[in-house]
């Protein structure tokens, strides 16, 4: 009986810790989901959080704009929209990422697409940990934390 309870506890833990990568109107980017998931969990743990259910939804600029208009009342393009459902020390959320904007941002700053994608993946996690980026000070802190996280990858 004891082994059965232990296995059930493990199953429950796994069910509560899921990082999903899906697409909506675009192709899935080349991504090592297992390695990326470990990295995301490590960054979350560094900031004192566990990972609950995190859904990454990769989409086009047009889909991102539609989400921005419908749910946030914003009429502009963006690379990421993070919906935070976190509780206490567990990160939960839906993270919409426009691959079109990630691609154009990578070209603009002269970095490979994969590097910019990793930066924006972790940007969403940092938002879930409470890190903002609306003021020059919080934006600088966000960039510093992104660079630290990228170094861990």
Notes on the protein architecture:
The protein has 153 residues and is an alpha/beta fold. It has a single domain, classed as Metalloproteases ("zincins"), catalytic domain (Collagenase (Catalytic Domain)). Helix content is 56%, strand content 20%. The chain contains six helices and four strands, in the order αβαβαββααα. It has a four-stranded mixed beta sheet with strand order 1-2-4-3, with helices on both faces. The N terminus is likely disordered.
Q: Can you give keywords for this protein?
A:
153 residues; alpha/beta; Collagenase (Catalytic Domain); four-stranded mixed β-sheet; 4 strands; 56% helix; disordered N terminus
Oligomer: single chain
Approximate helicity band: 55-70%
Number of domains: 1
General form: globular
CATH architecture: 3-Layer(aba) Sandwich
Structural class category: alpha/beta
Q: What is the helix tally?
A: 6
End-to-end C-alpha gap? 41 Å
Strand content: 15-25%
State the total count of DSSP E strands. 4
Using only C-alpha atoms, the radius of gyration works out to: 16 Å
The biggest beta sheet is recorded as: 4 strands, mixed
Low-confidence stretches: 1-15
**Mean of all residue-level pLDDT scores:** 90
Order of strands side by side in the largest beta sheet?
1-2-4-3
| CATH topology grouping | Collagenase (Catalytic Domain)
CATH class equals Alpha Beta
Short description:
The protein is an alpha/beta fold.
Helix/strand layout:
Blueprint: H1 2-16, E1 18-24, H2 33-46, E2 50-59, H3 61-72, E3 80-84, E4 90-98, H4 99-109, H5 113-128, H6 136-152
Parallel strand pairs: 1-2, 2-4
Antiparallel strand pairs: 3-4
Helix pairs in contact: 2-5, 4-5, 5-6
